[in-house]
Each structure stands twice: as C-alpha cells, then as structure tokens.
Amino acid sequence: MTAQNNDEKAAWLTGPSVRCEIAPESAQATWRLILLGAPGVGKGTQADLLHQKLGACHLSTGDVFRAAARQSECDLSPAMKAATEYMRRGELVPDTTVWEMVRERSGCLRCTGGFILDGFPRTLAQAESLKQLMENERLSLNAVVSYDLPVSAIVERLSGRRTCEQCRSVFHVTDRPPQVEGVCDRCGGKLFQREDDRPESIRVRLEAYDQSTAPLIEFYKKLGLLMSVEASGSPDEICEKTLAGLASR
Ligand code: AP5
C-alpha cells in the first residue's frame, strides 16, 4: 500500500512507498532538465527558481542523502548509512548506491510534471545509466544547463550558505539573507550550516567535481544537449539568462 504525504517532493525524498499528494500543476510543456556545475555554483537556488517558472519538480540527490542523514541509524540500510558518511567528508557516494536510490525513484522521472535534476548525474557511469533508463522509457531531455563561476566566488557562496532544516530553502548570510537572522522566510524553520560546507570538505568536493563531474560537460556537448550559463549576478538575473537560453533552443 502507498502512503500519501503532503509534500510535493515526497516520493523523491522518501522513496516509492510514498505518493506525492500535491500533484504537479498542468503546464503547457513538460520540462526535463539537468543542472550541472561545481558545488556551490547555485544549482539548488536556480532549480528552485526554475521550478517556480516552469513547474517541473526540483529533484536533488543531495537532499535525499541529507533526509536519510536525519533519520535514526537503525532505519537506514547499510548502504545509506555509508552514503551519509561519504557526504559528510565531501566525497562522492559510490555509483551503485546512487543509482539504486535513483532507480527506486524512477517514477519521479516519468512524472508528467517533468523534473529538474540537481546533483545527478555526477559521474560518467551515472550519466550512462540515466541515458539508458530514459531511452527505455522513451523520455528525452530538453537541455543540460551547465553553470560556470570562478572558484573564489564558489567558496564565498558555500561558506555563507544557510539552509532551512524544515523546507530546505537556501539563504546566504550576506547575498541572500533571511529577514530574521537564523529563521527561514518561507516556513519559519531554523536555518543551519551544512556539515560539508566546512573548509576541509569544500576542498574535497571541488576536487571530486573536477575529477568526476566536469567530464560530463563534454558528454552532454556531444549529445547536443549542453547549454552553458555564466553564474555571476543575482539569482533572478541568472534565472532569466537560463530561461532565455532555453527559449532559444
Ligand atoms: P549536493 O547537495 O548535490 O551538493 P553540491 O553539488 O555540492 O551542491 P550544493 O548544494 O553545495 O551547491 P549548489 O550549486 O546547489 O548551490 P546553492 O544553490 O545551494 O550534494 C551533497 C553531497 O551528496 C555530495 O558532496 C555527495 O557526497 C553526495 N551526492 C549527491 N549527489 C550525488 C551523486 N549523484 N553522486 C555521488 N554523490 C552524490 O548556492 C550556494 C550558496 O550561494 C547559497 O547560500 C545561495 O544562497 C548562494 N547563492 C546562490 N546563487 C547566488 C547568486 N547568484 N549570488 C549570490 N549568492 C548566491
């Protein structure tokens, strides 16, 4: 039996035993996008804005691992428990664990509301698995948006990030401050600093991006899906650039 949950991303965050109660709004087009870019470039912020403009659901693999990390240890499979440790250190979770978790949630990829994938795929093996699954399901991507920003600006964004522990909204202490310090504007939840935003984990995450994820830029360029966007400016400006790029494809 499938349980319902009053969260529009419930099936993604919790897994296939839960059904999203809030159905996707019927949109004129079904958008299926991947957001690429180094940690802290602003993928989550853009995914949230694009969700508001395009209606497609913001699906972050990092959010799934963080939701798992908040559960009691005895509710987690050994693979998920190990995944939360990789995440704390800033290392990539092994492909088999990530793919098992995404495959379980493949209903979210088939959803007529569409999707904006944030943080997945992150290795060539993950990108190949996703391509195969989408071909089997006769689904196609509209575009892969790659956000670019110098490393110094990325480190600045990560060090000042604060996240809501309830609704996962993202703020920045100087660039996107909440109206009341430490409190989420959207739901009143408490804001916290992510464990992997400590300097030693940031360094490991940036290395993992260079080694494992940056090659995806070439992979999607060859497939004719890549759209590069310069990620400087305000979040709204970057979102406008992204929408303009998508409209001109
Ligand atoms: P994940 O959650 O995916 O983290 P990430 O890719 O490292 O990306 P971030 O969430 O850190 O940054 P972002 O680009 O979304 O930036 P944001 O919008 O928050 O993954 C976490 C971990 O999970 C990984 O390290 C790994 O261990 C594991 N994992 C997840 N998926 C995996 C996979 N597929 N394979 C293997 N392992 C996996 O913005 C950052 C800050 O900047 C915020 O404070 C924001 O307010 C601010 N900001 C945003 N835009 C602007 C702007 N335009 N101007 C000024 N400030 C801005």
**Structural shape:** globular
* Largest pleated sheet: 5 strands, parallel
- First-to-last CA distance: 42 Å
What is the overall number of helices? 11
Relative helix content: 40-55%
State the low-pLDDT regions, or none: 1-6
Q: What is the strand content?
A: 15-25%
Compute the CA-based radius of gyration: 17 Å
Bound molecules: BIS(adenosine)-5'-pentaphosphate
The tally of strands reads 10
Overall pLDDT: 92
Q: Trace the largest sheet across and list its strands.
A: 4-5-3-6-10
The secondary-structure class comes to: alpha/beta
Note the run of SSEs as H and E: EHEEHEHHHHEHEHEEEHHEH
Entry summary:
With 249 residues, this protein is an alpha/beta fold.
